Amino acid sequence: MLKKKVENIFPHVRVRGEISGYRGPHTSGHSYFSLKDDKAKIEVVIWRNMMKKLQDLPENGMETIVFGKISTYPYSSKYQLIIESIKPAGVGKLMLLLEERRQKLQAQGLFDHTRKKKLPKIPEIIGVVSSPSGAVIHDIVHRISHRFSSHILLWPARVQGETSSSEIAKAVSGFNNLSKKGKIPRPDIIIIARGGGSLEDLWSFNEEILIRAVYESNLPVISAVGHETDWTLIDHVADKRAATPTAAAELAVPLKTELENIISSLTTRMKYALSRILYFLSQKLEITKRNIPQKNQLLSLAYRRYDEATLRVSQTFIKKIRYSKNDFYEFSKQFFIDSLISRCLQDKNYNLLVAAQSLPPLILIHLKQNYHHFSQALIRQPLLTIISNKKKRFEDVKHLLKILSFQTIMQRGFALILSSNKKPIKKASDIIRGEPFIIKFLDGEIQVISKS
């Protein structure tokens, strides 16, 4: 009843306002958006049959004068304006502000394409700035896990409202300030995402504080704000613009199956190329092999010369050894014990003969008859006794040296401590802290370093 009363009282009205929230015709063909000014806002609908008759189609931010009738929408208790015609009346205030800001930032070089960074081919970590409770983050996670599983870091931030632009700007700076090897590692790429909305809903992504934060980012940034028809200033400054958050996920990571197909194709091509190279090299090697003389042909003369030289050297060496052996034998005979004793006996015999000439004949005859006994008792036996004593003394000294040797002591479980230059260390104060030294055991040695 109220609907009919309103439609009867206001059968036709003319309204001026700025179009906001227009996303194109619905799947049904009808269009829904809002008309607003600085004081009020009213919902607008254009039926499908009327859309086909319009000469000027609606656009976000367009200042228009519309003609139609007032009605109500009972499901939400709202007034709505059913449009029959649209006439442009100028550019809206927000659109003017947006254009002025775009021209200002563009003049400062913030939208320069030469400074845009390339996206990494396969990022290990992806940073996402978005609302933690919206459907956007779930779409991104689902799409990335389906394409190529990468680690995702979410920096929660409001994507609408007065503080949203500063929160998103802090998130971009925060990702850049992370350390690559820190507890929370720095991502390789950043995705800034939110769902669609009106020009007012997306205004945070036109704020200068956020635009400059994205411009100063050392990490590549993908903007995924709104739907395909929605454009904000962050789309101009970002390194890549995605029409939707799902499209941003597809830009960030490759499709795993595509990579596998590429690797398989490259592997096949590489194997074929290697087989061709090996074939040509084997052919070339075979030709070279046939042109090279045989080993026996090249080395036959050298083998003969070597055999002759070896024979000459062997004969010369054998002769030299024989001569040296004879010389050594002749030289060493003078040091034999029997020879030494014989010399001593000869000397003593000579002395005895000289002394015997002064003796009486009877004594001399007696000495000649007992010469062998006297020479044995007076010369040979004392000399053998001296040699035996010296040999025993040598064995005693040898045994004493063995007893006093550090190796004998080590057999009883002791160890020898040496400095790095192999000198014995006798006192604990001689060990320098931090300097290496050696502990020598009976079966080996180890190197240690003093810590106290």
Model description:
With 452 residues, this protein is an alpha/beta fold. The chain folds into 5 domains: 2-91, Nucleic acid-binding proteins (OB fold (Dihydrolipoamide Acetyltransferase, E2P)), CATH 2.40.50; 111-254, Rossmann fold, CATH 3.40.50.261; 295-333; 337-404; 409-449, no CATH class. Helices cover 48% and strands 19% of the residues. It contains 14 helices and 13 strands. The strands form 3 sheets. Strands 1-2-3-5-4 form a 5-stranded mixed beta barrel. A 5-stranded parallel β-sheet has the order 7-6-8-9-10, sandwiched between helices. A 3-stranded antiparallel β-sheet has the order 11-12-13, with no helix packed on it. Helix 4 (135-147) packs parallel to helix 8 (245-252). It is elongated.
Compact summary:
The chain has 14 helices and 13 strands.
Could you spell the SSE succession in H and E letters? Answer: HEEEHEEHEHEHEHEHEHHHHHHHEEE
How are the strands ordered across the major sheet? 1-2-3-5-4
Main beta sheet strand tally, sense and closure: 5 strands, mixed, barrel
User: Quick one: overall form?
Assistant: elongated
